[in-house]
């Protein structure tokens, strides 16, 4: 009987969190990255400990998916109000040939001055994309090219753990609610 009561009390103390977007807590991918910011500094998840991180892979010449994802992220920050500074949005380029540092910086700043664009070499881009299970490929278009790529955003909690996959169709309201849950959960831990 004592064992049953101890198990029941243990279950009551467990953190129960439900999300509106896809919970991928414990995923065996997307553990970290080492990328350059537009100023040439190497950045990793450790740089953002204490913040929720929303990460999206794309390219600056994207006609619709990337601007939509980044516009939604800007709306999320607005919905967070006073907690907006507790969310770091990261845009990872899958087109480092054209997404030069100045282009990347101007592009992300057009959505929100606190958004951060990151990049690396072609070879390292492939490694990071593979680590996050992100698909991308060059698609010839006349005399130039476009990029096909995964349209999922990833969300990390303030401890740097991958927690959510956010689909392209998700609303800013649902993402903001999940980010707020991650902020509150982190704040309630001893």
UniProtKB/TrEMBL annotation:
Q: Which family does it belong to?
A: Belongs to the SCO1/2 family.
Keywords for this entry? Copper, Disulfide bond, Metal-binding
Which InterPro entries does the entry mention? SCO1/SenC, Thioredoxin-like_sf, Thioredoxin_domain
Q: Matching CDD domains, A to Z?
A: SCO
Question: What are the residue boundaries of the Thioredoxin domain, all occurrences included?
Answer: 24-184
- Top-rank taxon of the source lineage equals Bacteria
The answer to whether the entry has keyword Transcription is: no
Q: Metal-binding among the record's keywords? A: yes
Gene Ontology molecular function: any one: metal ion binding
Instruction: Give one Pfam family, short name only.
Output: SCO1-SenC
Protein name per Swiss-Prot or TrEMBL: SCO family protein
Disulfide bond positions: 62-66
Matching entries from Gene3D superfamilies are given as:
Glutaredoxin (3.40.30.10)
Which PANTHER family would you find in this protein's record? ELECTRON TRANSPORT PROTIN SCO1/SENC FAMILY MEMBER, LINALOOL DEHYDRATASE_ISOMERASE DOMAIN-CONTAINING PROTEIN
- Phylogenetic lineage: Bacteria, Pseudomonadati, Pseudomonadota, Betaproteobacteria, Rhodocyclales
Instruction: Specify which residues bind Cu cation according to the UniProt entry for this protein.
Output: 62, 66, 149
């Amino acid at each position: 009987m004592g064992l049953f009561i101890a198990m029941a009390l243990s279950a009551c103390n467990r953190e129960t969190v439900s999300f509106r977007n896809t919970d991928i807590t414990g995923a065996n991918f997307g553990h970290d990255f080492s990328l350059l910011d537009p100023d040439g500094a190497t950045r990793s998840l450790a740089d953002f400990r204490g913040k929720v991180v929303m990460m999206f892979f794309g390219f600056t010449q994207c006609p619709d998916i990337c601007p939509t994802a980044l516009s939604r992220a800007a709306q999320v920050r607005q919905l967070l109000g006073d907690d907006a500074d507790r969310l770091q949005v990261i845009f990872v380029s899958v087109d480092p040939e054209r997404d030069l540092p100045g282009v990347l910086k101007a592009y992300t700043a057009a959505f929100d001055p606190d958004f951060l664009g990151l990049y690396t070499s072609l070879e390292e881009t492939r490694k990071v994309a593979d680590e996050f299970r992100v698909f991308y490929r060059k698609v010839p278009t006349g005399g130039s090219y476009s990029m096909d790529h995964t349209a999922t955003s990833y969300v990390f909690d303030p401890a740097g753990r991958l927690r959510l996959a956010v689909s392209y169709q998700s609303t800013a309201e649902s993402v903001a609610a999940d980010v707020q849950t991650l902020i509150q959960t982190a704040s309630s831990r001893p």
